[in-house]
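Progress against Task 2.4 (sequence-to-structure conversion) is shown through the following example record, which the project officer requested during the mid-term review.
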Amino acid sequence: MKKAVSFIIILLSVGALAYIFLTVAWGGSLLPGETSTDAWESSHAVDRSGNLYFVQKEQESVSLVSLDSTGRRVYRRDITADVTLPCVFDDLFVDQDKNLYLTTYSLVPDTSVIRRVSIFRYREDGSFVGRIFQEDIVGLQDGKFRLISAMSDDDAAVYFGLLRETGADLYAYAKTGENMAVKTGAQAYPADMKPVNTFYVLPSGDLIFSLEGGTLLKTARDGTETRHEFGAGVIVDRIWFAGIQFYFRDAASGTVYVSSAANLDPAVAIGGTETVEDDARTLFRQLDPVAIGNVGNVMGILQRDGTSRIFLGGFAFLPDIGSSTGTGEADLLRWLLLAGIAAGCLILTLLLWEFYCSFLNMRMPLLLRQGLLVVLVVFLSLYFLINRIIVPQSQQMLQGVDREDRIRAGQSFIAAFRSHSEAAASGTAEATEAAAFFLRYRDNLQAGLPGLRSGNPTDLEMAARALDTSHFCFFTGIDGEYRILASTDRYEPGFPAVRLGYGTGMILELADTARYGTLSFEAQTRKGRELCVLMPTSMTYGGSPVLLGVLTGLDARERNTSAMVNTVSRFLVFVGLALVLLMLLVEVFTVYNLRKLERGVHRIAAGEYGGDIGVRSGDEIEDLSNSIQALSLGMKDTRTSLNLLNASYHRFVPERFLEMIGETHIEKVGKQSQAYKENAILLFLRFRFLSSAEERSEEIFASINTVFEAIAPVAGESGGTVYNFMPDGFNAVFEGGTEAVLRTALRMREVMHGLNARSREEGRGEVDIRLFLTRGNLMMGFIGEEKRMEPAAVTNEARKAEPLLQLCFDSDIHIACTLEVLESLPVGVYRNRLIGEVMVREERVALYDLFDSDPYDLVKAKETFADRFELGVRLFTKMDNANARNMFMEILKNTSLDGAARNYMYITEYNLRAGTRQSTYTTIRELERTR
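Structure tokens generated for the chain above:
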């Protein structure tokens, strides 16, 4: 039963943590078929096979999505890294070879200012080819923002144009190349050119413009013009390529026309009032957006009841093929991902459960168990508090603030228009005056745009930036539906509100505003999520009320919300941590006395007998503590006797020595207790009393032991083992790094300086010590007969060390080492110099002087003449005795402290006079003795 309960608890805990991680890290549902409410679609296109393509943006990611002709998802490619956010995705063109060309307009953050226009190419499978066009342009994203034309293509290239102030530049992109599109020409606008709604570039280089007032204008390369006048009320906003002909849509009526490319002879392809075949309630004009392929296949989307239904077919038959969410491998992958997450949670639960049952034996420390429970409860509570209460309330609060700001901005805009227009002041809106007012508003804003790119904007530029964060539109009922009267987006008057791309339900919201008053909602546009506020103006147009729409991007608000939520979340996490700590503190006090008893028992087990356990709880735990303490006192007496006996043993056999030969107890030591250390670091120390030794034996031994008691512990503190105590020094072996041994030697010199200072104060003789560091093999063990044995260490390096230490005394060298030791030290950290090669037992040994611990005057002398000393040694090695002698004489002229230089001068003089070839370093005394 206990195992089953523990398994359920662990499974629930792991599941809760996995849920929190997935929702926080991925920020959306993993369930198949579900999409985020932040997702929006744009740039729809259809190819000749009936495959659909569109761009979908969800939170901070952008994807290129493809559906087949049955509505099943073919792929979804993340293109976030290809484009520059924030941006508007405009047109998606599919050429005859099924390559995709995506037009984007990059925006200045939190504004509608276009800073760059780009075209990207993708293959049929969604793989990225590259950017084929890019132009830095300062402009405004509004109803006339289509700077790039509708595209056309032939077997060789794709053709498009770029609107300029005075005309259009023409470009072509070779399909077989990987280069950028190239400019092929330019056409100037006619003198009577009206504002352009959209335009189209033919493979021949001819241009077709849709102008305000219902005019189609074709301008050929030879300068000839062809016009077709629909008359007022027709607004052509989209054009699609179809080989030798093209299609275009009248936004006002929803009718799609077809016309030859050679002549402007439009004919109705499908009327806006015609019903869709599969749904008699649905009119073609209700489909938006609409896309037409180059073979005349049609795709349209119907926004109804919160879903996007896709209709795909021809002008004669347009069946419903499903929603844009699609199905297929994406759902399968989500199911597989969910199965993988569930399997991972189960495996992790089983591992934790097995660890709890087998390793911990279903026993957990009280404080740990309570602490885990507290942490889990507190942070689960904080998670749901933040995500279910704080975040929604914060968003609602900021939405209310934004709504009030937009209402005030709208009221100011209405007041400005009333003061501008005499008709508006009397309560009647006049279309021409409204259009002129909006146009000047945009012109004034356009004049301030260059300042937006400067590094230090002025107050005027900041005001222009603030104005540009909102869009203003006057709506009124015309012909039974709401249409644009005037707007800062420069939409042509009469443009239907249903095609503005301001989200679903715009018509319903406009009707509710006219009936009930100010209304606000969030809309999905090409720029992303925006707040739309609709409000009455108390003006009429043609007998219908005029409404004002104010739209503002929500990116800034989302950042403010995120910043506020992050601040609150950090505060709550801090509070949660404080609560956890407080509750853990309560738990600590709850088990405090039990832990004190536990620590007391552990101290007794570790050999600390007789100590006060210190439990003062006044209950059974204190009684148990007193009984254990009494037992501890009895054990202490027994242990004291044993410790005294062991201490006596360790005086003669150091504990560290036993460890190095692999023994743990003195009673196990025998002649077989041996150890062999390869490449160990050895330290040899010898000392001399600088004054005459005392005559009494007790004074001699007292002086020697004083030196040992001061210096020998330094080796032990650094992990060394001292062996072979002698009347004039000792040897030690180290298992650590070379630098640590050198620091030990330097520390021994410091201790010796302090000992000499005290000796001078007390009138006793001073001591001079010399140290030699080397590497070598060492044999350690016990020698003697069975009833009496002593520890011993045998190494060949000891025989080499004796003459080298004698040489150090006669050469003013306080710490010496071999080349092998020096090479293992950090370069440039410790002062050193090469003394030279020394002949020891028919072996040449390179001897180095480590002089960091030398007396100050000697250190300065060795540093000052280091280069000359090194040169002198090299000359001596080459048997250039005359120059070597001069070099060492020069050193001694400046200082008489350098014993090595003094010995070298004597050796070179001896070689010159006696004609001998003494090629190794020695001392004057040794040279005289051998001579």
